[in-house]
Design goal:
two-stranded antiparallel sheet; 91 residues; 3 helices
Length: 91
């Protein structure tokens, strides 16, 4: 049975995550306040960031940068800026 959360990113009730995907207090906050849909949006942005900026997940500074971007995207309604990327125009 799926659980429902009020997603802070999407500002609506939506299907919640099945389990805590990120460690610590931030992970708990994500689990309780972010929907599967918003998490999938973040994963897409995260992949683009890692590839564009050549981030190394073994580097603590790179992980901290990614966490800051994640927090801004999920909770502060900040858009992730990816150099050279222009979203397709909607028709």
């Amino acid at each position: 049975m799926s659980r429902t959360v009020f997603c802070q990113k999407l500002q609506k009730d939506a299907e919640g995550l099945s389990f805590q995907l990120y460690p610590g207090e931030l992970g708990e906050k994500i689990f309780n306040n972010i929907s599967k849909e918003a998490w999938q949006q973040w994963q897409h942005k995260q992949t683009m960031l890692i590839n564009e900026k050549h981030l190394n997940m073994m580097d603590n500074e790179h992980r901290l940068f990614l966490e800051e971007q994640m927090t801004g995207f999920l909770f502060e309604n900040k858009e992730v800026e990816i150099e050279g990327y222009k979203p397709q125009e909607k028709k």
